[in-house]
């Protein structure tokens, strides 16, 4: 039986879209799936209008759900507010999933956009908190199953 089509954080396939413009996140299991043609790479941050490379960003004062509910903001380490771009990128990612009738998203861990289960706390100190990034929270709210990269 053929595997169903999934969307995936593009950085997991070695696409140079991470905040620092590097491809250090390449995931071997994801690469094997990609060779079978079952993955569509997306970078919600780029889809939302952010350039690469860009300043490091974290959710300040909450999680992706808090951002979607207007209780938290996504800020760069220079305190630039990029919340609008993150929300726009989440919506564009959902559009892609809906166009292809995709029901699963493979997410990059700890990202303020794609993080699933844990994200950085907004202090830029490396401290993690429980919660999801903006895109992950948005996709979950819209019935998309999210798979952490570690669970591939």
Shape: globular
User: How are helices and strands ordered from N to C?
Assistant: EHEHEHEHEEEHE
Rounded Rg = 14 Å
Major sheet attributes: 4 strands, parallel
Question: Gap between N and C termini, in Å?
Answer: 18 Å
* Percent of residues in β-strands: 15-25%
Strand order of the largest sheet: 2-1-5-8
Low-confidence stretches: none
- Number of helical runs? 5
Explain the layout of strands and helices.
Layout: E1 6-9, H1 28-35, E2 39-42, H2 44-47, E3 57-60, H3 64-68, E4 73-76, H4 83-99, E5 104-107, E6 118-120, E7 128-130, H5 134-141, E8 145-148
Parallel strand pairs: 1-2, 1-5, 5-8
Antiparallel strand pairs: 3-4, 6-7
Structural overview:
It is a single chain. The protein is an alpha/beta fold. It has one domain. Helices cover 28% and strands 20% of the residues. The protein contains 5 helices and 8 strands. The strands form 3 sheets. Strands 2-1-5-8 form a 4-stranded parallel beta sheet, with helices on both faces. The protein has a two-stranded antiparallel sheet with strand order 3-4. Strand 6 and strand 7 form a beta hairpin. It is globular, with a radius of gyration of 14 Å. The two termini are 18 Å apart. The mean pLDDT is 92.
């Amino acid at each position: 039986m053929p595997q169903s089509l999934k969307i995936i954080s593009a950085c997991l396939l070695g696409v140079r879209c991470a905040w620092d413009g590097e491809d250090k996140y390449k995931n071997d299991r994801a690469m094997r799936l990609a060779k079978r043609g079952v993955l569509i790479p997306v970078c919600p941050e780029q889809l939302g209008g952010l350039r690469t490379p860009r300043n490091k960003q974290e959710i300040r004062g909450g999680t992706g759900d808090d951002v979607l509910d207007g209780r938290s903001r996504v800020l760069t380490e220079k305190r630039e507010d990029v919340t609008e771009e993150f929300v726009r990128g989440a919506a564009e990612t959902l559009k892609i999933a809906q166009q292809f009738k995709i029901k699963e998203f493979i997410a990059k861990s700890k990202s303020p956009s794609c993080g699933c289960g844990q994200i950085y706390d907004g202090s830029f100190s490396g401290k993690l908190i429980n919660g999801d990034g903006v895109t992950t929270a948005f996709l979950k709210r819209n019935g998309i199953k999210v798979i952490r990269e570690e669970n591939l």
